[in-house]
Each structure stands twice: as C-alpha cells, then as structure tokens.
Amino acid sequence: MTAKQDRIFSKPLSKVGDFRFDDKVASVFPDMISRSIPGYGEILTTLSQLAGRCVQANSQVYDLGCSLGAATIAIRRGIQQPDVKIIAIDNSEAMVKRAQDHLQAFVSDIPVELICADIRDVTIENASLVVLNFTLQFLAPDDRDALITKIYQGLKPGGILVVSEKLVFEQPKIHELLYDIHLDFKRANGYSELEISQKRTALENVMKPDSREQHQARFAHAGFAESELWFQCYNFASMVAIK
Ligand SMILES: C[S@@+](CC[C@H](N)C(=O)[O-])C[C@H]1O[C@@H](n2cnc3c(N)ncnc32)[C@H](O)[C@@H]1O
Ligand SMILES: O=C(O)C(=O)C[C@]1(C(=O)O)C=C[C@@H](O)C=C1
Q: For the segment 98-129, what is each residue's pLDDT rounded down to a tens digit?
C-alpha cells in the first residue's frame, strides 16, 4: 500500500496557522514523517530491538504520543516476554481513530490499549519501557520536567525510557549547519521551498526542541541513573535513559 502524499503546505496560504495533528495531517502522516525525519525507519527498527531486550515479563509498555501507532507496532513485533500490555496514547482524535485500523492490520497476541488522552493526565505504572517518539518537543516546555519525573516514578527498576526528538545545538555554527543539512534532506525528499517555509512557520509556536544537554539534565534530575544518545542524524536524535 502506498501512503497518501503530504501536499499540505504546497499551495500558498494567505495565513499560515499553527501546525495541528488534525484529520488532514493524520491522513498523510506516514508520508509526512518519513520524508521529514531522517532515520525515522531506523529508529522504529531499533525500538523493536530494544523492546526484545528490555521489556520485562508482567509489565506495561507506554507509547506516549503514538500518532498512528508506528512505534507501538514496532515494539509489539519485538516483545518476546509473557504477560505484557502496551498502552498507546495520543490526544489527537484524528490520529487515534486511524491508529485502530493500523494496529488491526498486523496480527499479534499482545494486547494494545489505545487511549485518546493528554499524556500529562495519565498514570504510568508497572512500566518497563516508555517511548516518547518525537512527542516531547510538542509539550509546553514548562510541563516537560513533570512528565519525565512521572515516567521515572512509573518505571520498574531497570526500566527504560526512549526519547526521540529534533535537537537544537548550543554552538551557533553547528546549529545552522545541521539545520541546513536537514532542509536539504527535505528538498531531496521532494518538498518545495514553499512547503518547507510554510511548515516551518506553522511549527514555530508549537514545536520547541531542546538541546541534548537539556534532555540529559532533565533525565538526571528526574532520577535516571544513566542516559545516552544512541542515534543521531543531523538535528534529529534518539536517547535512552535507564532507571
Ligand atoms: C510527531 S507525532 C509522534 C509520532 C509517533 N510517535 C510515531 O513514532 O510515529 C507527535 C504526536 O504527539 C501527540 N501529542 C502532542 N502533545 C500531546 C499530549 N499532550 N498528549 C497526547 N498526545 C500528544 C500529537 O497528537 C501527535 O500525534
Ligand atoms: O522539523 C521539521 O521540519 C519537521 O517536519 C519535524 C516534524 C517532527 O519532528 O515531528 C514535525 C511534524 C511532523 O510530525 C513531522 C516531523
């Protein structure tokens, strides 16, 4: 099945509104995310591997900001341990509605509870793996510490948190270079200058990336004993923190 192509920002808009995970975005999301995030496919593959290694028997796995459930599906494929339940949460109704169909397209005995809710309001408990795959950057910066602390408290000893994000860099020339290379990646994937610039405007108020240093300081502050970057391509990265 070929994914519907993302043309959302291809026509000149009289006013570019804030980016929202609405029905229009949900309908093209697999194409949008794979053409926008370098390494997205590799990150999903590794989530599957991490699940196979780190998920504990009789525990829960959380996919926070699950969109259409791509990370949930990858994790579910990797789990070998018995009596595991996956809880996938997103506050976009358009995403959750479509996620149900995506999840049903793959056969598995591992139960998935799909919830339409704000991840700031849900309880995390008995968790051995929690994933925030490009979600934290969309949360108000002031709410991020509390979420990571809540996740830490809901993890079992030895449990892991995986956080994938767009990064900012403290060194200005490095920042500019890596952001420019990412724009080349989007161009190479068929996005026009107009699409790139209108999407950038749309994301300006809603997506606020942190630096690697800010993420690692937050993990340490929440109580995580260890954390490390395990993937980076340009200004996109994935980190793992272990309780
Ligand atoms: C970039 S997408 C995540 C992609 C997805 N994890 C994947 O791997 O394909 C970010 C998602 O986070 C969701 N989101 C943002 N803020 C949220 C919140 N406070 N509570 C729940 N979901 C949220 C959005 O609706 C969106 O679907
Ligand atoms: O930074 C960009 O240019 C993006 O398009 C990034 C990004 C993301 O990181 O989530 C933004 C929105 C879409 O969900 C897909 C990709």
A: 999 999 998 899 999 999 999 999 999 999 99
Distance CA 232, CA 236 (A): 6
- DSSP 8-state secondary structure symbol assigned to residue 213: H
Q: Determine whether the shortest distance from the Cβ of 148 to ligand 1 is under 6 A.
A: no
Answer yes or no: is 6 a known binding residue: no
- Ligand index nearest the alpha carbon of residue 40: 1
For tokens 């780190």, the residue is 54
Rounded distance from Cα 196 to ligand 1 centre (Å): 21
* Angstrom distance (rounded) from CA 199 to CA 211: 21
- Tens digit of pLDDT for each residue in 154-171? 999 999 999 999 999 999
How large is the average pLDDT for residues 43-50? 98
Q: Is pTM beyond 0.95 here?
A: yes
Sheet bearing 127-133, strands edge to edge: 112-116, 85-90, 60-64, 127-133, 155-166, 236-242, 226-233
Q: Using CB atoms within 10 Å of the CB of residue 117, give its burial: 0 to 12 exposed, 13 to 18 middle, 19+ buried.
A: exposed
Identify which of 88, 84, 107, 108 has the alpha carbon closest to the alpha carbon of residue 98: 88
Any known ligand binding at 184?
Answer: no
